[in-house]
User: Which sequence fits this backbone?
């Protein structure tokens, strides 16, 4: 197949370099690939945290400890919703929810969770997970990930 040019049959050709767009396009493809792989890794990390929390919950025979873990998770989820509704939504409406605003939202949520958790809950989380702040940040990020995938939070 082709077309006729000056009495000759010229086959159709597809200039690959114009389709790919040169080096800039490869950089965009590589960037998109890295973003996709990074997102997948974060998803697996959050999945692992949830599975570990579930496993730990089933292995904890004491109802009080289960209640502590469940309560800490509920407080964190409530705070994430609150920060989203009072801070994030207004910025997203103005297209002002950038990296700096994301970091501020995380700090706001982390500080609020740390304030709301009782000393008993903090002590339990420290003894179970080692670092309380790491657990709180991981739980906040896992909650945000869940909300995004459920469609309730952008």
Assistant:
């Amino acid at each position: 197949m082709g077309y006729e040019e000056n009495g000759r049959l010229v086959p159709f050709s597809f200039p690959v370099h114009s389709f790919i767009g040169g080096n800039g396009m490869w950089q965009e493809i590589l960037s998109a690939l890295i973003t996709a792989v990074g997102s997948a890794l974060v998803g697996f990390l959050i999945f692992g945290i949830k599975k570990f929390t579930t496993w730990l919950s089933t292995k904890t025979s004491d109802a009080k400890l289960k209640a502590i873990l469940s309560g800490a998770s509920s407080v964190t989820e409530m705070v994430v919703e609150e920060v989203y509704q009072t801070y994030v939504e207004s910025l997203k409406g103005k297209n002002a929810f950038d990296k700096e605003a994301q970091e501020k939202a995380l700090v706001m949520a982390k500080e609020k969770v740390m304030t709301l958790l009782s000393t008993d809950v903090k002590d339990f989380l420290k003894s179970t997970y080692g670092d309380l702040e790491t657990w709180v940040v991981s739980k906040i990020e896992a909650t945000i990930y869940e909300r995004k995938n459920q469609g309730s939070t952008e």
